[in-house]
What we know:
Layout lengths: L1 E4 L19 E5 L3 H11 L3 H11 L4 E5 L3 H4 L1
Parallel strand pairs: 1-2
Antiparallel strand pairs: 2-3
Helix pairs in contact: 1-2
Amino acid sequence: MIYFTHPERFLPFELLEPQQQQCGIVEIKLDETIKLFAKKNITGVRFIDELRRFLEKNQDAKRWVYHPRKNKVQ
Length: 74
C-alpha cells in the first residue's frame, strides 16, 4: 500500500500495525510539492513531470511504515 500524506493529511494510526499483515505500507510525504508546483510556474515544466521527478528522486519523502518481514529480519 502506498499512502500519501501532507500537512493536513496524517498517517492513520491503524497503518502502523495493520490487520492485513501480508502487505507492506510505504508513506510518501507530499509536503514539499507545493514548492515544486510554485517553481513549475517559473520553469515551465509540466506538473506531471515535476511530480514524477519528485516521486522518483526524493528519498527523504518516502519511508517504510510497515513491512511484513520486518520482525523476522530483526
